[in-house]
Amino acid sequence: MSITIKDVEHVASLARLELSDREKEQFTEQLNAILKYAEQLNALDTDHVEPTSHAMPLVNVMREDAVKPSLPIEKVLLNAPDEEEGQIKVPAVLE
């Protein structure tokens, strides 16, 4: 499978992009290079490779939850653009 300039023009049209002739040629070459590399990867024997969702093992690096006292409401409201009845007031987002 290979990408043609028509394919690049179609995708650019869908994305509402205006590309010069040079850019169309450049993207065609780059996308074909990607597909060629993917074909090389398909040639690899992966029958005895166990499927994984990540190439590297993941480790949770988050800290344990610790209960701490909250900031006093007066201090929190100092950063609020507007305040009403002890709460941060924001513009309405629904009509």
TrEMBL record:
UniProt EC number: 6.3.5.-
Signal sequence bounds: none
Keyword match NAD: no
UniProt catalytic activity: L-glutamyl-tRNA(Gln) + L-glutamine + ATP + H2O = L-glutaminyl-tRNA(Gln) + L-glutamate + ADP + phosphate + H(+); L-aspartyl-tRNA(Asn) + L-glutamine + ATP + H2O = L-asparaginyl-tRNA(Asn) + L-glutamate + ADP + phosphate + 2 H(+)
NCBIfam families the record matches: gatC
Physiological role: Allows the formation of correctly charged Asn-tRNA(Asn) or Gln-tRNA(Gln) through the transamidation of misacylated Asp-tRNA(Asn) or Glu-tRNA(Gln) in organisms which lack either or both of asparaginyl-tRNA or glutaminyl-tRNA synthetases. The reaction takes place in the presence of glutamine and ATP through an activated phospho-Asp-tRNA(Asn) or phospho-Glu-tRNA(Gln).
Entry protein name: Aspartyl/glutamyl-tRNA(Asn/Gln) amidotransferase subunit C
